[in-house]
Structure formats: C-alpha cells, structure tokens
Design a protein that fits this description.
39% of the residues lie in helices and 12% in strands. It has helices spanning 10-25, 54-63, 89-98, 118-134, 162-182, 199-209, 232-243, 273-282, 299-314; strands at residues 41-45, 68-71, 103-108, 139-142, 185-188, 214-219, 247-252, 288-291. Strands 1-2-3-4-5-6-7-8 form an 8-stranded parallel β-barrel, surrounded by 4 helices. The protein is globular and about 45 Å long. It starts with 9 loop residues before the first helix and ends with a helix.
C-alpha cells in the first residue's frame, strides 16, 4: 500500500535528507524549538536514548529540539514499576527537565491489567500507587493488557472472553481510584494485540468506568487488524469520532503491515500521517506527540518529518 501524494521512495528520501540536515544543525540548537500552543508538542519516550544518565538523555532530547518527554523509572536505573521510590527522585526528574525547557508530558506506568494471575494485577496496582504518589497531577501511560502471561503486548485467544474484560475493567477501576487520589490522569491506548483492541472497545471502557481520570493515548499505527489497511481512512476517522475528545497523549510511530502493532519509525511505513495530523488538529489536540519505536539515529529525521506534517495540517 502506498500513500496518496507520495511517489515511490519519496518519503524515505525526505527522511534521509531531513536527518542529514538535522544532524548538521543539532549542535547549533541551544534550546528546544519555540512552542506553539495550538499544535501538538513533539516529544519522545526518553527510553529511546538507551544509554546515559537521566540528565544525559534529557540533553539529547534538547539537542534534537524536543519540548516534552515521557519518562520511565528505568531512565534512572530503576525497574520501570518500582516497589518504592527513592527520596528526591521525582524532584530531580522535574528539576532537570525544567532546567532544559522540557516538559514531562507523561510517566510510564504500564503493567498487564488483564494478566490471568490476580496477584500479578494486585502487584501492578500497588506499584502504580507508588508512581502516582511520586508524580501527582501528571499523566500516566497504562496498558489494558492481554491474557498472554508472558507479554502485555502480545495477543491471546482469551482476550475476547467476558471474564477477561471483567478482570481488566475491575483493575482499571481500581487504578482510576488511585489516580483520583493523586489527581493523575491515566491514559490507555487501543492496541490491536490488547483486550482493548479498537477504538470501539476504548469507547466502551471509557463509558463503563465513567471517570475524568481515565483518558486515551492515540497511536494510529496500532489500530489495524489483519486485512484492514485498505480501510485506513475509515478506521482512523472512526477512531477519532469515537474517542477524539478523550485523547490526552498521542504516539508517533509507523507500520508496514496490519494484524500487529506498528513497529516502524514515523515516516518509515504506510501510515497516512497527513490524515493523522489533520484529525489531531480537528479535535484540537495540543498535548504531547511522542515519538517511539525508533533508534537514536532516526530521531532527527523523524522530528523533521513530524514538523513538516504538522505544518501541512495547519495549512
């Protein structure tokens, strides 16, 4: 499948050229690009920078002109969902980001909320409370999960069972109560391999829980079951019609086939980014637009690609 308006290879050529240009100017960027409050703020999952201290990773994000990040406790050498929070770490995270003009847009708080073992879910909730109390009033990215006991990102035949939904919804309800107490917003994404595998099920969960502390992370590359890529426009427009008003985070990556979550860097696959950015703008989304699923070397080209697509969407 090829995107309308692109000749063969043109997008790859654009990314390559943009990456070279961005690399040449990276050292001249002393601060992130000026923020336009009407547009999504381009950021990154800080774990994309796989080595270095938390501060060094922030420096890389700043050098790439990024204005927001999603942080993980792994960025400080801890488990992503720790059992306890070291004194001073949340303040350090906030202070070091702010000193570089970078906003912490979200905190990673994923665990398998549909795991078949109830004790696994209880442990996840306990650790979520640790994060929420350490980072009050922040968005926390969560995962509705799967019955697959070995990976919350892989499918399982029992994901469509009524019991799986009940277990997941009960876990989400408890998580939302934790969030309410710390004034966090929990953001889950409809993801083709998870129990909430579509925008329709995302709408169902939002309506069932009925809380202002539960919102959506939109990742357009994760919405396509097997055989549905030819219906890309229809699926994206339906997704935004169903949950567009509840989106608080957006992800930027790509896909080259359906039937799985996207695993390509933004601009390296077949996702209609022109449509994706127009839909975000139509729903007045101006929150974090977070790159992930890319290497450190791909960051400059992907940032340039997103900036160009946002500028086109703005008209």
């Amino acid at each position: 499948m090829r995107l309308a308006g692109f000749k063969s290879g043109s997008r790859r050529d654009f990314l390559a050229q943009a990456g070279v240009a961005a690399s040449v100017t990276a050292h001249a960027q002393s601060r992130p690009a000026a923020v336009d409050s009407a547009l999504p703020q381009i950021g990154i999952l800080l774990s994309t920078y796989t080595t270095g201290t938390y501060e060094q990773r922030l420096e890389e994000a700043k050098a790439h002109g990024l204005t927001c990040v999603q942080v993980s406790m792994g960025n400080a050498g801890l488990p992503e969902m720790p059992d306890e929070m070291p004194a001073g770490l949340p303040a350090r995270f906030r202070r070091e980001a702010a000193s570089r003009g970078i906003r912490i847009g979200s905190v990673q708080g994923t665990f398998n909320m549909c795991h078949p073992d109830a004790e696994h879910r209880r442990t996840g909730l306990r650790r979520l409370r640790v994060l929420a109390e350490a980072f009050p009033q922040m968005a926390i990215h969560i995962c509705t999960g799967t019955r697959n006991p070995s990976s919350m990102w892989r499918p399982h035949p029992e994901n469509n069972s009524a019991q799986a939904w009940r277990d997941m919804a009960a876990c989400v309800r408890e998580a939302v109560e934790i969030a309410r107490q710390s004034k966090n917003v929990l953001a889950f994404e409809p993801e083709v391999n998870n129990i909430v595998d579509s925008a329709r099920k995302a709408r169902q969960l939002l309506d069932e829980i009925g809380s202002p502390y539960l919102k959506v992370t939109m990742d357009a590359a994760n919405l396509f079951p097997a055989g549905t890529l030819p219906r890309m426009k229809e699926i994206l427009e339906e997704a935004f019609a169903l949950v567009g008003k509840d989106i608080v985070l957006a992800h930027a990556k790509d896909l080259d086939h359906d039937g799985d979550a996207g695993h390509k860097a933004a601009g390296e696959g077949v996702l209609d980014y022109g449509l994706y950015m127009r839909l975000l703008r139509a729903h007045r989304f101006n929150g974090p637009l977070l790159l992930h699923g890319l290497s450190r070397a791909q960051v400059p080209g992907c940032v340039a690609f997103l900036r160009a697509k946002l500028a086109s969407a703005r008209g």
